[in-house]
Structure formats: structure tokens, C-alpha cells
């Protein structure tokens, strides 16, 4: 699913108006009906009080149109119009007149007006600001937003939480609505997936308002949300007449005294994700643990007892995953540097491999084309240096990826894969995956997909999706706190199977049709 900018969304609106020969007011009516249907399906006429806070632009117009539908169906509601400017959009004024025609009189709130009382039992509809906001709200509007946030009421934001910008970081967190739920028109917004802005949108859902499919298909987006359908499109079916050699030989290089578990996890994830053969290259201290716990994995030992001192092997792997548990001893750094200089097969680099590169940036020039780097935020900062905010971080990552022809897998609550100036936002995963070894598992999964002849970019994207989905399926029986890296590995089989499962019955669509 494409993630468009505010400018592109405005263009989609205009294209739709011309293509479908409708007015902007008719498009707003579509949006308000989708908002109402979502609410009506859940409340079923309940008389809980609904407080609509409407700005004076098109987002506020959506709120006023929604109020009219609530009135027509007998809901208990109150409308507040926030006069933060003398300018009013045409469609806002149209829907304001429609309310007045029905003897519905909004409460107008300005700088000198006393703010209303809100109760925890209320439902609040936030329709203050839309995607066009380009400055922080005035102080008195900020006080209103704080009133909403502190009310304890359930807050539903229209399109985006008011106070957020579409393309820049939050300047004043006190001036942003904390939404329990966001009803986003047609497209997800990038700000839902970034740590600094995503905290204001607890949950979100897309409402289809019928924007032009032609525009959507022909317009390139800088970011794309990877869901089940996108992940399934990358999947390569297995052929009947194949053998273990068909699915590649993966070599996992890493480990040091006390960190052999990282290699064990990566190797287990690699074989569980479908690699035909997996070998582990480790210091001698890891031989017994790996050989005894992973009978499916072959073991090659380094000359070093407690750390890798010279990467030397007589096999010909199809892909190498390196860095997990490696350590940063001087002898290991030297061995890693020499290894990069002579290895030319596809590669995934994680953990201490990234830390060694961060200390010696000249090693980046030794990487094979399309090498996959999988940093967590701390490792990424060592690679990129300081960034101002999440938007600056993404831009720096894009530049870095282009400069060194590498694929960056930015691990976070929503992992983002960056390559060739584009970002792919993963939709799977959960807070339980913030656990030791989770990243080692991801390295194993991506390495395995590379061994199976997936293109590097698709291997990174599909690997991130399956890794997160495995975690999602594992928590169904474990909960967040009990989730471990081993549990994620155990969820990989169900995650693959889930790619082919049918979606659950869409009860919401069925209810609308009936």
C-alpha cells in the first residue's frame, strides 16, 4: 500500500474530482459517511455523548458533516467549532449552513471563550486540523488540546491526530492530540510509523473514500507499507523436483566467548526459514554448544579459542550472515576487515559487524553491492552520526544507502527497509519482540531468503515481514512479556503458513451491505 505525502494526497483529491466529475463537497460527503458508518457500526445508537471538535478548514468540514449524520440517526452529540483563524474553507461553510438549516447550533470557541467540560465517559471526535497544518497551534488551542488529552475520554481523530505535521517532526508535543484511534482517509500516513510521531496514534484504520485508482496506480510513492498481500507477492514457490542444494548454502559467521547463543539463534532461524544448508563459523569455544543443540547445522571453527581471529573456510557458501555476537576485539576487527576484502558473495551484516564498520568507515567500500545492513537505532546512529529527528534520520539513511549501494534494514517498532531512495515500512511486529536475540533471528531469516535466491531487496522486505509476523503469532499464546527469540523462531512456520490463509470475514463490510 502506497504512503503518499500531503501534496500527493491533495493531487489525488483534485484528480478524482475531475475524473469522476464530482464536487469537493461530494467528496467530503463520502468521507463523512465513512466516518459515520465506522462509528454507527460500533455504537449502534448508543446514547453516550459524542463531542465533536471541529476546525474551520476541510478537516472541520468533515466533522460538521459527520454531526449531521449523527443527528439524522438520533445520536447524543455536541459540536464545538474552534475559531483559530478568520479564514474558512468553502466546504466547511457549506456544512455549517446545513447544520444551521436543521436547527443544530454549534458552540463557537475562541481565544476568550471558556473551555467546555469533558467527561471520561464521552467520545471525542478530533477534527481540528488536517494534513495541511504547517505550524504549531496557538497557545489557547494548545490548552484545548490538553483538555482533550487529559479528559480520559476515548478520542477518535479524523485523518490524522490534530497538531501533527505530515512531513516534519513535532515541535510542541503539548499541542498534539493523543488519539486512541485514527480514521485515515484512503492512505496510511508515514507519521503513523515513526517513533516520535506514531505515539500520538495508538491505533489507526483506513477508510476508503473512493479516490481515483488510476492516480494511485500511476503515482510513485517514496514509501510503501508492506502488508500480507505485498509480502505474498514476493514469495517464491518451491518446485517438486528440487533438493537441498536448490535452496542454497548459508554461512553464519559470529560468536565470541559468552555470545555463542547469538549464532545459535541466527543459525536456527536460518534453517527454519528454508535454507537448504546452514553452516556456522565460530570460535572454538562454541563448537560443543552449537554441534549439540543444532543437529541440522554444520560447524566450522576458527583458530581462536574465545574469539574469531582469522576467517578461513573451505566451503563455497551462497550467502553469508556475519556479525552476530562477534565482539570487537582487535584481532576480530582485523579478521573481519580482511574477510570483507576477499568475500564477494551476497551478505547480511548485523550487530558487532556494524559496530566494527562504524569505527572504520573505510570498510564500507569493501562491501559487495546490495549488502544488507540490519542496524538497531544505536547501531544506526554509529553508522550515520547524529540526526535531528526521525525525518532527518530517514533522509540520512537514504543518502547512506545510495552512497554505498547497500540495503538498510532500520529495526524499530515498524522496521523500514531503505534502498534506491525508497522506504518499505513493515506492518508486522509487536512490543514483545523488544527482547534479546530478536535481531539475531532476523539476520538468520534474511540470510536464509538470500540463500534461496530471493533478490536482496525482496529478501530484506519479506524477511522483516515474516520475522514480525512470527512474533505476532507467537504472542497469541505467550503474551508480550514471555516472548523470547526462540519463540519467534517457533513462530516462523506459522508465519509462512499465514501468507496463504484466507482473511477473516469482513463483518464491517457485510453490515454496510445489509
Write the layout of secondary structure elements.
Layout: E1 2-3, H1 6-19, H2 24-43, E2 50-54, H3 58-72, E3 77-82, H4 90-101, E4 107-109, E5 123-127, H5 139-149, E6 154-158, E7 181-185, H6 195-198, E8 204-207, H7 213-218, E9 223-226, H8 228-234, E10 249-253, H9 260-272, E11 277-282, H10 287-293, E12 298-301, E13 319-322, H11 330-342, E14 347-349, H12 352-359, E15 371-373, H13 377-384, H14 390-404, E16 406-410, E17 416-419, E18 422-426, H15 438-451, H16 456-478, H17 485-490, H18 492-498, H19 507-513
Parallel strand pairs: 2-3, 2-5, 3-4, 5-6, 6-7, 7-8, 9-18, 10-11, 10-13, 11-12, 13-14, 14-15, 15-16
Antiparallel strand pairs: 1-9, 16-17, 17-18
Written account of the structure:
The protein has 514 residues and is an alpha/beta fold. It has 2 domains: 2-220, YjeF N-terminal domain (Rossmann fold, 3-Layer(aba) Sandwich); 231-235 and 242-498, 3-Layer(aba) Sandwich (UDP-N-acetylmuramoyl-L-alanine:D-glutamate ligase). 41% of the residues lie in helices and 15% in strands. It contains 19 helices and 18 strands. An 11-stranded mixed β-sheet has the order 1-9-18-17-16-15-14-13-10-11-12, with helices on both faces. Strands 4-3-2-5-6-7-8 form a 7-stranded parallel β-sheet, with helices on both faces. Strand 2 (50-54), helix 3 and strand 3 form a beta-alpha-beta unit. Helix 3 (58-72) packs parallel to helix 4 (90-101) and helix 9 (260-272) crosses helix 15. The protein is elongated, with a radius of gyration of 26 Å. It starts with a strand and ends with a helix. The relative contact order is 0.09.
